[in-house]
Design goal:
290 residues; two-stranded antiparallel ribbon; globular
């Protein structure tokens, strides 16, 4: 005989009637979207959102709902994505000319290149987001993914965060092909800009302002993209737009919050529409290049 146990999410420590999957990265207490404040690493409750003054006050203990972990910095999807990227880089470094010059069969079969996509290599729209061109390239991208990916994963939840990452990567691939279809492109930057786009919407919903930390990071990185040659700014802008649209779909286009919860029909439709539009734009751009 099998039995089932009903599990409930913890409730916000300031609003006991509100269930939430979010928690303060400083003290571990559950917080709702009204109480949360995005921080450089994680989310903060009102007691830890600003600079500390005076002695630190120990928060009252919180009882964890059965089967629910909170408090934390746990971000399994972000960790898994970093592990995959690093593993792929090491394989291509071994197959190529060394640690700073990846190449080989896996690299050649996975790089984003317009004429190859036009010939039917549709998988390159996905696989290229796991390739990197040199050591500093992957180091910078994985650091950015670690810093901004964890709080966004905690906020959106694992399933929606994973959907955001892949669809933003698709949108980034489409943007790269629109900018320069005859230039080989690799990197996770499109997906990472999509996470920045999600952070922008999350901050806007939490504070009512667009001029926060996410906007600052976006502007700095776009200036960097346009200043230095050899960077696919089309991929960055495409991923950014994709991430913004997906997160708005999660939030029912401004009628709700994008906070942790079920994916829902609106979220599924948002992922499908943005993903399909990205693939369609990519093939529209590369038509005739085969």
């Amino acid at each position: 005989m099998s039995t089932t146990t009903e599990t409930h999410l913890p409730t916000c420590y300031r609003h006991p009637d509100r269930e939430t999957g979010l928690s303060c990265s400083e003290c571990g207490r559950p917080i709702c979207t009204e109480c949360m404040s995005p921080a450089p690493v994680g989310l903060r409750c009102p007691d830890h959102a600003g600079p500390r003054r005076g002695p630190r006050i120990k928060p009252r203990p919180v009882v964890r709902a059965p089967g629910t972990a909170f408090g934390t910095t746990d971000a399994p999807i972000t960790k898994a994505l970093i592990a995959i990227n690093v593993t792929v880089y090491l394989i291509t470094a071994v197959q190529g000319a060394g640690i700073n010059s990846p190449g080989g069969s896996l690299y050649l079969k996975s790089v984003l290149y317009g004429p190859f996509v036009a010939q039917g290599d549709w998988w390159r729209l996905v696989t290229s987001m796991f390739l990197h061109g040199f050591l500093l390239h992957i180091a910078f991208n994985m650091y950015a993914l670690w810093v901004i990916g964890r709080p966004v994963e905690q906020y959106l939840g694992r399933t929606r965060y994973l959907g955001l990452y892949f669809v933003s990567g698709l949108a980034g691939a489409a943007g790269a092909l629109i900018q320069s279809p005859l230039t080989p492109v690799v990197g996770a930057s499109g997906a990472i800009f999509g996470i920045l786009g999600a952070m922008l919407i999350i901050e806007w919903q939490a504070t009512g302002r667009l001029g926060g930390q996410a906007m600052t990071l976006i502007v700095i990185n776009l200036v960097f993209s346009f200043t230095f040659s050899g960077i696919s700014w089309g991929g960055h802008i495409g991923g950014l737009i994709g991430g913004i649209l997906v997160t708005l779909a999660y939030a029912h286009w401004g009628r709700g919050q994008a906070a942790h919860g079920r994916l829902g029909l609106g979220g599924v439709l948002g992922l499908a529409i943005v993903g399909a539009a990205s693939v369609a734009l990519a093939y529209w751009k590369v038509r005739g290049l085969a």
